[in-house]
Model the fold of this input.
Amino acid sequence: MFFEVATLKGSVFAGKGALPGARAWVEDAVAGTLLGMWQTEIGPIGQLMLLRSFDTLEELRTERHRALMSDDPFGTAAANVKLSLESFAPFPFLPPPKPRAYGGVFEWRTYWLTPGGLPGTLDGWRMAIEPARAYTDHLVTAMYALDGEPRITHLWGFGSVEQRNRLRREHYSVGLWPPKGGPERIEHATSTIAFAEPDFPIC
Done:
């Protein structure tokens, strides 16, 4: 399985305006499964983010080519927004994302890694997932970039920001999180809180 993260960004309220065009674009897709759509609220404001899965890298490339050859990919022209497309592979030891209602509040978290930092990062996560199950049960997926700078992106779902903060605090206090060796391999990080659009597999 492979993933694409599409981010549509513009003014503070750009995400809402981009929603109809993005929906129509995905409905016309020749490959891929839309897992969810999110409006960002804390961090970069007003963005619309889409997560799609693909069975093969060739399917992802087919959809990427469709976007590159379109004069209005994801309805960006009509909504007057910019488009960013990123390709990812999942951490190999994680199960595929399952349709589930997480509570509607999600955190998109990206770590830019030091050169050569991915293998050790994967090892640390592999060992930490099960001991921290009360927290990692909220992990939608974790994935590493196939293009651009070395980085990982992980998506978490919660019922509230307060639940997210409590779980992280509890797991940090007893040393169950973060994964061992992880912070030492991070050059810099970003975190964005987003609200899920309803009626998608992950919400």
In short: The domain at 2-89 is CATH 3.30.70.100 (Alpha-Beta Plaits). The longest strand covers residues 186-196. The beta strands are 2-9, 33-42, 48-54, 82-90, 105-113, 139-145, 151-158, 186-196.
